[in-house]
Amino acid sequence: MYNSNEGFDDMIEAYCETLLGVDESVGAIMEYLEKEGLDEETLVIYMGDNGFSWGEHGLIDKRHFYEESVKVPLIIRVPGQKPLVCDSLVELQDLYPTVARLCGLVPPSYIQGKDISPMLDDPSLEVREAAFSVAPMRKGFLLRDHDYAYIQYLEDASGGIELFDMKTDPKQYTNLAENPAYKTVVEHYKTKMKD
């Protein structure tokens, strides 16, 4: 937890400079592909590691289950396709079967990832009901769907539970896990997590 403003502005400035550098590098790659005539035959994927909190929830780090950390950039540019925005839940493990399909290959049946390439044509499609995240250092698990973010610590949830209504509280300020009105919802997600 971060309790001091000392150096905070410098940290944010350095982070923003890093992002600017990444943006410029991606631009340089895209310009090179176009200049060399490779842009119409090259699949480009831009993705990021888990995000970083800058004071949200009193945190300055990236190893937690709030949206700032678990929501990551994923941009897929397929030659000849127009840009679209899709709000479906996906997991980074979905990249392997997606890239395989886009390259005309058949991914092995035993992998857990899902092919999200149909969403590149129709952004209203959903391939997952929920996304699952694990943070081994925190011994925690997240099950996130469009309605709720359910977080539990330790496999049996004995380390604590958090439940956030993502429609009415997208910044995750109100933990509903102890609210008696949400007991059934908590049990539903606890069972879903166990399954």
Plain-language structure description:
With 195 residues, the protein is of the alpha+beta class. The chain has a domain at 129-195: 2-Layer Sandwich (Arylsulfatase, C-terminal domain). The chain has four helices and six strands; from the N terminus they run αβαβαββββα. A hairpin with a 3-residue loop joins β4 and β5 (148-153). The longest helix has 28 residues, at 8-35.
Q: Any key phrases for this structure?
A:
single chain, 195 residues, alpha+beta, Arylsulfatase, C-terminal domain, 4 helices
**Measured on Cα atoms, how large is the radius of gyration?**
19 Å
Order of helices and strands: HEHEHEEEEH
Distance between the termini: 32 Å
| Residue fraction in strands | 5-15%
Assign the CATH architecture of the domain at 129-195.
2-Layer Sandwich
Please give the structural blueprint.
Blueprint: H1 8-35, E1 44-47, H2 67-70, E2 74-77, H3 95-102, E3 131-135, E4 140-144, E5 148-153, E6 161-165, H4 183-194
Antiparallel strand pairs: 1-2, 3-4, 4-5, 5-6
Give a short overview.
This protein is an alpha+beta fold. The chain has four helices and six strands, in the order αβαβαββββα.
